[in-house]
Amino acid sequence: MGLLFMLGMKNYRIFVVLTLLIILNGQSSLEARAGADRKVHIVYLGEKQHDDPEFVTDSHHQMLWSLLGSKEDAHDSMVYSYRHGFSGFAAKLTKSQAKQIADLPEVVHVTPDSFYELTTTRTWDYLGLSAATPKNLLNDSNMGEEVIIGVVDTGVWPESEVFNDNGIGPVPKHWKGGCESGEDFNSSHCNKKLIGAKYFINGFLAENESFNETESPDFISPRDYDGHGTHVATIAGGSVLPGISYKGLAGGTVRGGAPRARIAMYKACWDDSGCYSADILKAMDEAIHDGVDVLSLSLGYRVPYFPETDVRDAIATGAFHAVLKGITVVCSGGNSGPAAQTVGNAAPWILTVAATTLDRSFPTPLTLGNNKVILGQAMYTGPELGFTSLVYPENPGNSNESFYGTCELLLFNSNSTMEGKVVLCFTSSKRSGAVSSAARYVKNAGGVGVIIARNPGDTLSPCLDDFPCVAVDYELGTNILLYIRSTGSPVVKIQPSKTLIGQPVGTSMAAPAISGVVALLKATHRDWSPAAIRSAIVTTAWRTDPSGERIFAEGSPRKLADPFDYGGGLVNPEKAAKPGLVYDLGLEDYVLYMCTVGYNESSISQLVGKGTVCSNPIPSVLDFNLPSITVPNLKEEVTLTRTLTNVGPVDSVYKVAVEPPFGVQVTVTPETLVFNSTNKKVSFQVRVSTTHKTNTGYYFGSLTWSDYVHNVTIPLSVRTQILQNYYDEN
Length: 730
Fold this sequence. Notes:
Blueprint: H1 2-34, E1 39-46, H2 53-68, H3 71-77, E2 78-82, E3 87-93, H4 95-102, E4 109-112, E5 115-118, H5 123-126, H6 137-140, E6 148-153, E7 194-199, H7 202-207, H8 228-237, E8 241-246, E9 249-254, E10 262-267, E11 275-276, H9 277-290, E12 294-297, E13 299-300, H10 314-324, E14 328-332, E15 351-353, E16 357-361, E17 363-368, E18 373-377, E19 385-391, H11 415-418, E20 422-426, H12 433-444, E21 449-454, E22 469-473, H13 474-486, E23 491-494, E24 500-507, H14 510-524, H15 530-539, E25 552-553, E26 559-560, H16 563-566, H17 573-576, E27 581-582, H18 587-596, H19 601-608, E28 629-634, E29 637-646, E30 652-659, E31 664-669, E32 672-675, E33 681-690, E34 698-706, E35 711-720, H20 722-729
Parallel strand pairs: 6-10, 6-12, 7-10, 12-14, 14-15, 19-20, 20-21, 21-22, 28-35
Antiparallel strand pairs: 1-3, 1-4, 2-3, 5-11, 5-13, 8-9, 16-24, 17-18, 17-23, 19-23, 25-26, 27-29, 29-33, 30-32, 30-34, 31-33, 34-35
């Protein structure tokens, strides 16, 4: 009787659970049909549990079906199934539905869709990769011919000559992708250079239900409307085009970093409206399946940025699975520099890149009426503009009229304010469109030129119809403004731009430039992991510019750069090809890292696709084998470990040299590392202690292992935080 009673109670409990599930399903179905404020959410399930992608997709639909109550609602809700590089899906869900599905044991996390924005020649000669040099990385790697660079961006303009396949061999055998047809684009637009092109718009459409395809200037296809994606792909792997210049300005050979590498474009950014994480994640999933060797993303999130392991960061999630499959993921650090603490895409498995400057400038003389000459920057090739009235739109104090000296607001000035004059304006916008918009407003009002005062690190580009638009920094802009206010009839003369080589002044698109270098390294060292490639780039980088000049951080005021400005330094491709030693990372290292930063064992197990138990005690995050050492909260002393892998001559001996940060003692044990045929990996310990008695900011130094041929250098960054530690302990 007791047994029957227990069975009865058990059946009752089952009945209650089933009833509750039916009620929840019914509630979800009613919410779905009512369209109750559904938003796109990304349901992340970790490593895929089956190799058949159709099976994986079916399991995603089944999960949605069980939540929403019908196949019809599940199909209507589904935006994407991520089924190649990892498992998950994007779906339109209400907040309560997202909460229900997040509580399922097989779900790692559920995050709302998020928004990313785009971040945006002589570069290769500057970096020592001239095609004219017969023996260098460029030629040793056959210009990256067997490497496939995947680009996630705004699409591609296939007719561009930089995608010609002249002299390029067959498509690499490991390629499994293709070209997707759409508006003004089909498979005939692809060739042996541009081997793949796909587009992903479902996330964008789900977030912008009022979007009208017929009214949009963008192409519903892989074709590029914005131009950003074509530019990025060109820098990373554009074919060689000799003898190119811009309207008489000195030019030369134009090419990408790896001119024989293949390009695969994944369009996930739309209608000048940015990019949604659901589309980005699907693009990365497809790229992993298609067989790319390098993934380049010049995309970033807006401030405040995600922490380096934030579950909402779709790029970090997709990049993790790509890296585990041997794909190097290169991302821009964002466009918020040179301000401090503004680096994005900082997950430790990503190769994060910041912009530097080129040693080519376009000085444009501005002669003021007091005969003072100011050198601005422009790409103006028209005739000299003789002394002309100069104005800054501001109220002189005796007028009821409104005046606007901000570049973005020039259009609100009356035409008479700007007609026949050169206009000075100021902008804090980092978008290149701010310059062209200001030029357009002035030209439409009858003005004859514009001087734009802006951040000195911003990108330089020509203005439409060669209209005189000259950029100056804020200091020079203020000097011009003082001149205007000091005289009753200010005038200025603008001379045509010149090309000057030698002094660094115009910026490059950094992420695709490094993607090109990575492609060359990948072609030369097919067995190197993404972490090994990153280490090779960081440990061999220049800490000066190629001519030996010290690197300055842009901004106001300018200052000598430190590792928080330049990271490892300025990439030195030739040295990176033969680094001697590398700080490598594999799956076990990433698991230990996730244990140290607080991921639970269940989540880590799903993330990597196998059972994981974190060690006890939890290891220190300082032991993560990065090619850098940062101690953010040093009280007295700490000891950490690094491991080096020999990729140079088999029998090698390296000795250590340390430049300690100010007020910090650094001891390395052992001081000599010996490598041979049986000893390819060697670990060492670094003991760091402070002599500071109060809290400090960061001080910087370096640690170098040398065999007198290779110098393997990493930055040291240490901050003493005695007072904070005192409060933490008390």
